[in-house]
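Running this now, will post back.
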Amino acid sequence: MTHKIAILGASGYTGAELVRIIATHPTMEIVALSAERKAGQAMADVFPHLAHLDLPKLVKIDQIDFSDVDLCFAALPHGLSQALVRDLPETVKVVDLGADFRLRDPAEYEKWYGAPHVAVELQKSAVYGLTEFYRDDIRDARLVAGTGCNAATVQYALRPLITAGLIDLDDIICDLKNGVSGAGRSLKENMLFAERSTDVLGYALGGTHRHQGEFEQEFSALAGRDVRIMFTPHLVPVNRGILASCYLKGDAHAIHQALAARYASEPFVEVLPFGQAPGMGQVTGSNLCRIGVVGDRVPGRALVVSTLDNLAKGSSGQAVQNANLMLGEDETTGLMLAPVFP
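Update: finished.
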């Protein structure tokens, strides 16, 4: 069976990544692509690396006939998906790659994103899209909210440890590095090559990053109490990739055993042998997340390192993984891409 797919926001990095992945997917066919500023252009003109593909032209969203669409990927900036998804035919399944449905409490959405939630009734049915922990709900969902890419990287490292009660919940420090594609494709002065190519820059300091809302929502629900981690992201001069170093209080060997057991049967999450830590280059272009655990010279402390590709497992790959479940396909279909190295 062929599933007809629309991608909204196809002129951004995550939109292009969706096209790249779906191009070899055996049961998905792209029937509509949208881009507001680049409407009327061919995808090949916007992304020459996709010129070999037979793709529909980019159009404005209101030009798409959604009666011919089975599933829609919304790769739009936050604030745009809520009203749009609310007005789509109920027959269309939706995977939202943006932030509009990630936070279950509308008040929390307004707190972190600075605008009121305009589709509160729809929010009640939205499923959080961290596949490995919500797959049963995702199978039956009409609307899935993709996670933040930073939020996913850290959650893979910490969720099993919080559930097992293996770490001090009041002393969690996460230092994260991410590539410049995570900032999107729009022109920004501080993203110029001369300003980023030899620099490392911390941002959203003091716990102000919007993905903190996801950490607090998910970790507090797991622990049954308020959990607030210390989290600092840094922009590094690479195109794509995220690496999170999580500094924890707990027994390193028990931490490694818990992570290895939890992910033993997961096709896209790999825990390395104890004492090894992954690098970004081990996952580039793939739907993999790799995790390493290292003991500290001081007993009772551990380092957990988690890495994934922000455009793949952190966004578009995760979106296709969720869509496979929603459409009744094998979860791994079209996603067994080996990392690109060097």
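The chain has two domains: 3-146+313-326, 150-309. More later if anyone needs it.
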